[in-house]
Design a protein that fits this description.
This protein is α/β, with parallel strands linked by helices and 504 residues long. 34% of the residues lie in helices and 22% in strands. Strands 7, 8, 9, 10, 11, 14, 15, 16 and 18 form a 9-stranded mixed β-sheet that branches. 54% of the residues are buried. The structure holds ligand BES, manganese (II) ion and zinc ion (ZN). Manganese (II) ion (MN) binds next to loops.
């Protein structure tokens, strides 16, 4: 990620010398006071464009004006925000991403954003959203591409203008938080976008160790015989067809007793070919993103540690590559997972639940107040909810409520699907404790039903990020590929965490 400097200062745009300044405009609303002053200085250029309908300030629409010395800003970028009554933090995130990308594409180095026309209740949350928008919007995955000259352009500075010195502190706090969160989400995006020949289980373990060293986290890794001895039958069954050995990584931030213990589990299938139940080749390359859960947990812990959240957080990353080979698991195999439950493997393509199940069973050893797993678990969840909402299933009303609210606040929204016992029927096996796939109905629920068997009575929520972790096309503040979905949600949830009630 290119390093972009974010500054905060007091000032007003009509007096501020800069390369380009954003003028926020609403549909069918009068100009803001600062836009009015600029409009007057420019001989009514702005109001004329609006009146003639040459520029309609819909969300993410923009229009570039040169000022020819009439105001200290060399250029103004008219920036549409849609209707004023519909303004939200996410719309600020989106519009700022648009402004930052356009500035970069123009080859300019500095963008100035006046906050005062758009402050939504809190200066800190407004600045956080604006900074997230700029940094997420500028993201691109450039590790393997020799850039074209125009792709070498980089924005260097974003300047937020606040009205008075009184707001400086709050704005700076929001900026720092926004920077930390966006950096973590981009770190997660990078991992998801890495090709599967690079992002192997070994490489993700190295990345976790590296993060742990920098952030002062404890880290434990099991592979080979140690993994077998631990009883990780699911992780071994999924990884044994690959020459890249499976492993389990446990990260620990904080210490027991320092706030609630919360366990985060992230599915880390570095490539999901389907195994012997091989997938169709169309879009199989996207299955490099099947480790997004693990990448999200890593990214979130990184941000939470930097924000010094007063909790004890366990991150568990079961890592494996699902490949077909002479040593691979077969449909029909019966394996024993951690905790002793036997599983009849109906399809080797329902591999995520096997590794996440093991990790959830292991998480119980920490006696956590809450467990959350994130997994690109089912295509069925993508069918149900598309790319807009993460599927949420779990056994704790309180935890689901908190996650739903954190989803609204971070705009990484979740939608609940039922997890009634009635569905357990679907994964009953005649010859083992359960099977790893049902008859094909209620696919997202079946996956969660399977995981439920590993959590006992611990408050637990499963987040199916199959649709949200990966984007098929560019959006307002994401590119095609890994989105980093879940990082903002987890940081919102855990940085606002209050003691979890003993009963679920
Ligand atoms: N990793 C896939 C799920 C997936 C699909 C993620 C599309 C992202 C986009 C998972 O391992 C899988 O293959 N699930 C199967 C389960 C089925 C065989 C019970 C599925 O969804 O088809
Ligand atoms: Mn699969
Ligand atoms: Zn998978």
């Amino acid at each position: 990620m290119a390093k972009i400097k974010v500054r905060v200062k007091t000032g007003t745009l009509h007096k501020e010398p800069c390369e380009i300044g954003a003028v926020y405009l609403f549909e069918q609303s009068p100009l803001s006071p600062v836009a009015k002053v600029l409009d007057k200085a420019l001989g009514r250029a702005i109001s004329n464009l609006l009146k003639k309908g040459e520029f309609k300030p819909g969300l993410n629409k923009s229009y570039l004006l040169h000022t020819y010395g009439k105001v200290p800003a060399k250029r103004l970028l008219l920036l549409g925000l849609g209707k004023k009554k519909d303004l939200s933090f996410d719309k600020l995130r989106q519009a700022t991403a648009t402004a930052a990308r356009e500035t970069r594409d123009l080859g300019l180095k500095g963008l100035t954003l006046p906050l005062y026309p758009i402050v939504l209740n809190y200066v800190s949350k407004t600045s956080q959203s604006v900074v997230e928008g700029a940094l997420l919007g500028l993201y691109r995955f450039e590790r393997f591409k020799h850039p074209e000259p125009e792709e070498k352009r980089e924005l260097e500075t974003v300047t937020l203008l606040v009205e008075g010195a009184r707001q400086l502190g709050e704005a700076k706090r929001g900026v720092r938080r926004g920077e930390t969160i966006a950096e973590a989400a981009c770190f997660t995006r990078d991992l998801v976008n890495l090709p599967p020949n690079e992002a192997t289980p070994d490489m993700l373990t190295r990345t976790a160790r590296d993060a742990a060293r920098r952030l002062g986290l404890k880290v434990k890794v099991w592979k080979g015989d140690a993994l077998k001895k631990l009883g990780m039958g699911g992780i071994i069954a999924v990884g044994k067809g690959s020459s890249n050995p499976p492993q389990l990584v446990a990260l620990e931030y904080g210490t027991r007793g320092r706030g609630d213990t919360v366990a985060l589990v992230g599915k880390g299938v570095t490539f999901d070919s389907g195994g012997i139940s091989i997938k169709p080749s169309r879009d199989m390359d996207k299955m490099k993103g099947d480790m997004a859960g693990a990448a999200t947990v890593l990214g979130a812990i990184r941000a939470l540690a930097r924000l010094k959240v007063p909790l004890h957080i366990i991150g568990l990353l079961p890592l494996a590559e699902n490949m077909p080979s002479g040593t691979a698991s077969r449909p029909g195999d019966i394996i024993t997972c951690l905790g002793g439950k036997t599983v009849e493997i109906i399809t080797t393509d329902a591999e995520g639940r096997l590794i996440v199940g093991d990790a959830l069973a292991y998480a119980r050893r920490y006696k956590p107040r809450a467990m959350i797993d994130l997994a690109t678990l089912t295509g069925a969840c993508v069918v149900a909810l598309g790319n807009t909402a993460t599927g949420m299933l779990g056994n704790s009303e309180e935890l689901k409520k908190r996650i739903k609210e954190a989803g609204e606040a971070s705009w990484e929204r979740v939608w609940e699907l039922p997890l009634w016992d009635d569905y357990d029927e679907l994964i009953k096996s005649d010859i083992a404790d359960m099977k790893n796939a049902g008859p094909g109905v209620a696919g997202a629920i079946t996956g969660a039903c399977f995981l439920k068997k590993f959590v006992e009575d611990y408050p637990w929520v499963h987040l199916d990020i199959a649709g949200t972790a990966w984007a098929d096309k560019n959006g307002p503040y994401w590119r095609e590929g890994g989105t980093g979905a879940g990082v903002r949600l987890l940081v919102e949830l855990l940085s606002g965490w209050s003691k979890f009630p003993a009963k679920k």
